[in-house]
Amino acid sequence: MQKGYFLGIISVLIPFVLLILIINFFAGWVSIDKNQGLPIIMPIILCPIGVVLGLVSFRVKKDRLSLTGIVLNIILFLFPILYHFIGTLVFGV
Question: Where does the sequence pass through the membrane (predicted)?
Answer without folding.
Answer: 7-32, 38-58, 70-91
